[in-house]
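Encode chain A's predicted structure.
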Amino acid sequence: MDDDPGDRPSDEMRGRVPGSRAKLWVLIRADRWAVTGVLLAGIFGVLVVFGRLDPAPLRGAVAASDPIETLFQGLLTAIVTAVTLVVTINQLVLSQELGSLGDQRDRMRGAMSFREDTEGVVDEPVSPAEPSAFLLALIDAARSRAERLADAVARCGDAQLRRQIEEFADGVVDNAESVGDQLERAEFGTFEVVLAALNFNYSWKIYRARRFRIERGDALSADADEALAELVTVLELFAPAREHVKTLYFQWELINLSRAMLYAAVPALVVAVSTILYLDDVGTVTGITLGVDNLVWVVSAAVAVVLVPFLVLLSYVLRIATVAKRTLAIGPLVLRSTDGTDGTDGTDRVQ
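Encoded structure for chain A:
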């Protein structure tokens, strides 16, 4: 193997995703309500500025026609459509939890079988129940296998191979310790659990370990070969565990999104209906504040409130879609272009 260790992809997700860190922070790390608030403030500010700079004042347009009524009638229809969408989302999420007794029993058997397989490698009689602790147990198992691998390969006569495997094992240990610290502080229901799991680049590690065994297995001792095999086993268990936790988080987020949109839809409906009924006359709102007609302030604020459900939907979907795009495949499969010719500098999407 002649791979350059410098070609190893970053363990952290943000290091493997093209684009600025600020963009990734907005798409993934930022609080969804904060993103909604920023978008809301931006829309409100832009409307006020346009109202201030418009050579044909809004008050004159309202006197000549009915732009406010037309606008809010369209927004009112959109709100009702959005609520229908929320109901559909809830039905899709709940449909995965519904099933016959036989289906539920099969799901239970599958879950228990996987836990039993996991308990065989994490050296615990009962695997942890909490998602973060469960992932942490697998990561700790990977770290211990990597440490054993480093010890076993120390007696290898091939200096280059020994150096490559030691660097590989050290990378696994460092990554496991970093992600372990993140998982210890994370609580399920927050994005931190999923983000920490995404920062463990398991797919590249599986690919690398398998290449060591297949291409240079004849130069490895029995202990080193066994340690590599055990490490691959742990990593292969971590992959479906992470995907399962990610799926549960997506369901959790979609339910939160549905509730948030329903809560926001009620005041949005009230504001839209009130605007249509009571802002049909230019004399309803009078005066000027900070050089801007008060009618512009009121209409801009009303538009912002009515758009809250859609901005909430946008902020949540941005994160869900970004994570889903970066984790489409499972295992060492490259779904994006890389600079290398053998895939060692790439990974399965963003693993």
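The chain is about 70% helix and 0% strand.
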